[in-house]
């Protein structure tokens, strides 16, 4: 018997991503609670579509105050999670797609399988896909046509996004990354998180240059690898530095060359050398 999983997703002006993300959750039999942080680009209309009604448990408003405030978003998510009658909780974002490496296995089935093995938490490995040969496609569904990616793992475990509600765990103190609270019984198997962080090169240049981060977040040490970055550093790395998929829909992703930093972080010596060669 599969466990009941409810996902929590906050969004602000994510019309390009949102339909794909919600379709993926619905196809994986996962209900969701949505937090609209003052969108004005049509995201709200996407969230309210009739096709998502069977899976949409709740759509909550959080007024936008001129800054990206993860502290506020996580606090509201924590409050809503406490009120939700689900067995497992899942934290996710509109630009993320999660899956196991087993063909045909839904995300809900994967979480249920690991729960049956005694786990109360699951870590996700982050694979950052870059739109080098193809831009992000808003109507593509779960899997994008992008082929180039890198495995981002500065440390592990790092993204403990799925957890059993009754375990008394929370993502609040860690900025949505690792669980704190009672005993964490982490599954031995990690699941995959495809992070479609940028839609195209122009989006990469503009995304964090235009974002303002809340002082409370920065004081906690969050967003350090995104705030106050030179936009020019977001030029995509050369293809040869990245992993490449033959089939974008394949489940198995390479973890042979983990990246300790994102490609734009004080551009690494390796990337600088490659650009000059």
Overall description:
Helix content is 23%, strand content 21%. A 6-stranded mixed beta sheet has the order 3-2-1-4-9-6, sandwiched between helices. Strands 5, 7, 8, 12, 13 and 14 form a 6-stranded mixed beta sheet that branches. The protein has a two-stranded antiparallel sheet with strand order 10-11. By secondary structure, the chain is α/β, with parallel strands linked by helices. The chain has one domain: Alpha-Beta Complex (Spore Coat Polysaccharide Biosynthesis Protein SpsA, Chain A), CATH 3.90.550. The protein has 7 helices and 14 strands. The protein is globular and about 45 Å long.
* Count of domains: 1
Q: In what range is the share of β-strand residues?
A: 15-25%
The residue fraction in helices comes out at 10-25%
Give the count of helical stretches. Answer: 7
Biggest sheet strand line-up: 3-2-1-4-9-6
Order of H and E elements: EHEHEHEEHEEEEEEEHHEEH
Q: What is the architecture at the second tier of CATH?
A: Alpha-Beta Complex
* Intertermini distance: 56 Å
Helix vs. strand class: alpha/beta
CATH topology-level fold name: Spore Coat Polysaccharide Biosynthesis Protein SpsA, Chain A
CATH class: Alpha Beta
